[in-house]
Amino acid sequence: MKSLLQIEWMKIRHYKTFWILFALFIISVFGLNMIVFKVKQAIDEADPLLKAMTSGPFGFPDVWKTVGWLTGWLLYFPGFIMIFLVTNEFTYRTHRQNIIDGWSRKQFVSVKLVMAAILAAICTLMMVLASLVFGFASGTSFSVSNLEFIGYFFLTSYTYMLFAFMLALFLRRAALSVGIFFIYALIFDNLISGFISGQTNTPIGSYIAPLQVADDLFQIPFIGKMLPNRPELWILLIIIAAWIVFYHFISLRKFEKQDL
């Protein structure tokens, strides 16, 4: 696997689109959180009663949940990176060359899955750094409470990366994959969640759609609990694990069966 990852690195180290999207993600993580942090400070200064009601979402230990929720809105950027990394293989026929050079189809898919995990880990690292920056900026003392949200954010990121990978593998075209990924994640995932919930007449139906269930590991900060009917956490984790297994299986199955 190490040699395969070295080859992947050679493909992307001079790829400008990768570095531009990566830089935009990092800038956006700190920029978005800074904007909300400053707005929250201004609101607190103007309305002390509201400040008491919202209980400092950027202070430790709540900062892990707040920054995780805000950063989750920016996972489109690494998702686009994942799409371009995969669709470039088909555009430039490098996937064929890899197979000719002795890679198995399973190895080709496996190294992309590892790349998805690496991207998710990088996203998580940015979330942790931003949480530390704004947590200390709030003037509160560091706390190990709520550190589990770091793991939840990794699961959310990895789910997004796998969904983007699957789309790119099936569609093979960057523009089409990016468009569907963005529109689905922004609009249709919520619509599907609502439809399933309505058809099943159970609250858990709202948490079965592939991206919605990952997003709902984080509840909306600032305004208290907004998801009173959310299932137990272990149920959400089981659903996410099932989707991850599905993405692995269907991606490997697709590449093994499709024509090169």
From TrEMBL:
Pfam families: ABC2_membrane_4. The keyword Membrane applies. The chain crosses the membrane at residues 18-37, 73-92, 113-137, 149-171, 178-196, 233-250. Keywords: Membrane, Transmembrane, Transmembrane helix. PANTHER family: INTEGRAL MEMBRANE PROTEIN-RELATED, MEMBRANE PROTEIN. This is ABC transporter permease subunit.
